[in-house]
Amino acid sequence: MAARPQPSIPKSRSLGSVANGSADSQGQWGRAWEVDWFSLASVLFLLLFAPFIVYFFIMACDQYSCSLTAPVLDLVTGRARLADIWAKTPSVTKEAALLYATWVTFQVALYSLLPDFCHKFLPGYLGGVQEGAVTPAGVVNKYQINGLQAWLVTHLLWATNAYLLSWFSPTIIFDHWIPLLWCANILGYAVSTFVMIKAYLFPTSAKDCKFSGNFFYNYMMGIEFNPRIGKWFDFKLFFNGRPGIVAWTLINLSFAAKQQELYGRVTNSMVLVNVLQAIYVLDFFWNETWYLKTMDICHDHFGWYLGWGDCVWLPYLYTLQGLYLVYHPVELATPHAVAILFLGLLGYYVFRMANHQKDLFRRTDGRCLIWGRKPRAIECSYMSADGHRHHSKLLVSGFWGVARHFNYTGDLMGSLAYCLACGGGHLLPYFYIIYMAVLLVHRCLRDEHRCAHKYGSDWDRYTAAVPYRLLPGVF
């Protein structure tokens, strides 16, 4: 399942290759150097409207019981004005500001000050100090992988409070949901602005910076590849995983607690959403080392796209199913609930096994079995920006022989299960599957555009061997 999918925009045509290699000309990994008119228009659109989109969904639940059409009809017919809607929107409060500041500070402390100990007693878990992929400039960064530990500590404290200490209500997140939105926006814009200034004045690696010549594109897509403070605080890894993804399951638990408070019970649909999304979150942190090799870490520079997206877009729009179920509790018939659970688990299995097959193939250099057979691969080579030529292999066995991005297919199956758990009463909870479909299709195209530059004729041989991207026989 896609690790962070924030709002996605098309890249410039001048994009080169990415994480696994480089273009024919050096320095073309990551985001574009130059910006065409379509990329610039996309950037401006998202900068202007992505915050409004988040506000619209949250406001619709708060004031219109999660209806997306009712506020539009009110405005069109004159029954309400924008000023009226805004006046009813809760503003930031001291309580929310203190809560959010405490939350972020706590996650920074867990990330920076508490070295991982989970890898010492959890068989199969790979944590502690790990190396990332080579950057465009040939740098190999080291990371302190301790996200699972942070998740466990955070949720242990949450459970201790809920069942023993009662320092605060388990509904605290829902109760301050909109005031917390303003706090998240403040952090998102603050960190995005800081890393842009940092890229000009004191970049972590000047050779891994990209200046497009356009202020808005630089702000959106980022200049620095891996901005850091000190040796270990990596902005990209922290904001991709913490605080948003650690908060994801806490947010859902708070929604479930609110449903219990309002209706005296937690519906099976709320349980399904909590369980299926918790599986995804735990998978993310269990495989955080593997995440160092993904597009988010290996390809994207750190700007507003990741900074604001991780602070606002992810925690507020990825949790819409739980929020919707607070306002519209849905009790599914047992066969429907079982079918949705099966779809979600099947999607997770496909997603996880596809990624496992690729990781196994890489770790063993192909000396393994996939589906009981020796794997087949396309031999290829690429050159990094430091002028060194590297050799690699593209897997064409197992799920990777079915489609070139079959892990995304599993991701979409799981995403659909989240939405189906909410029934068919409103469109709002289905935003997630629509967004994920657009995002992952675009990711396919981004990745393949870069790989075509990176591998050249070797990529042509690969696409001939595996002709479909997501759905065999369809796309």
UniProtKB/TrEMBL annotation:
Signal peptide: none annotated. It is found in: Endoplasmic reticulum membrane. The keyword rRNA-binding does not apply. Its EC number is 1.3.1.21. Keywords: Cholesterol biosynthesis, Cholesterol metabolism, Endoplasmic reticulum, Lipid biosynthesis, Lipid metabolism, Membrane, NADP, Oxidoreductase, Steroid biosynthesis, Steroid metabolism, Sterol biosynthesis, Sterol metabolism, Transmembrane, Transmembrane helix. Pathway: Steroid biosynthesis; cholesterol biosynthesis. Its main location: endoplasmic reticulum. Residues 9-20 have a biased composition (Polar residues). It comes from the Eukaryota. It is a multi-pass membrane protein. The chain crosses the membrane at residues 37-58, 148-168, 180-202, 302-320, 332-351, 415-441. Coiled coil: none annotated. It catalyses: 7-dehydrodesmosterol + NADPH + H(+) = desmosterol + NADP(+); cholesterol + NADP(+) = 7-dehydrocholesterol + NADPH + H(+). Residues 1-20 are annotated as: Disordered. Gene3D superfamilies: 1.20.120.1630. It is an enzyme of class 1 (oxidoreductase). Belongs to the ERG4/ERG24 family. Catalyzes the last step of the cholesterol synthesis pathway, which transforms cholesta-5,7-dien-3beta-ol (7-dehydrocholesterol,7-DHC) into cholesterol by reducing the C7-C8 double bond of its sterol core. Can also metabolize cholesta-5,7,24-trien-3beta-ol (7-dehydrodemosterol, 7-DHD) to desmosterol, which is then metabolized by the Delta(24)-sterol reductase (DHCR24) to cholesterol. This is 7-dehydrocholesterol reductase. It comes from Echinops telfairi (Lesser hedgehog tenrec). The lineage of its organism: Eukaryota, Metazoa, Chordata, Craniata, Vertebrata.
